[in-house]
Amino acid sequence: MFELTGNQIRRGRELLNLSRWRLSTNCGISPVILKSWEDASDNPPSALWPNLSRVLRYMRDQGVVFGDDGEVTIETRSARPCAPLSSAGVSARG
Question: Within 10 Å of residue 90's Cβ, how many Cβ atoms?
Fold first, then answer.
């Protein structure tokens, strides 16, 4: 069974280079609640599942990977190639 700890939440936030305020705002929770989760250290935070799942989903969508062994990493996503621009309607000035 996967258990998320306060340290893992903190590490995920740090990997995304987000402040507590920014992450909590992005996820619709209070920064005070997020701080209390992170302060849980190696313990699972005392949290309502809907709130915790929003944070977990947001972090995963941003590339954070929570390993079964407790490791938290960020997935490197390859950039999509740019589509060539059409020259239609573009004039060159020299």
Answer: 7
In this structure, what CATH number is given to the domain that contains residue 53?
Answer: 1.10.260.40
Q: Which domain holds residue 40?
A: 6-74
Say if 91 falls within a structural domain: no
Question: Could you tell me the sign of the dihedral formed by the alpha carbons of 28, 31, 34, 36, in that order?
Answer: negative
- The answer to whether residue 86 is domain-embedded is no
Report the DSSP beta bridge partners of residue 65.
73
Angle at Cα 34 formed by Cα 27 and Cα 32, nearest 5°? 110
Kindly report the pTM of this predicted structure: 0.72
C-alpha span between 14 and 66 (Å, rounded): 13
Residues 35-93: pLDDT tens digits?
998 998 776 666 678 888 899 999 999 999 998 888 999 987 654 444 444 444 444 44
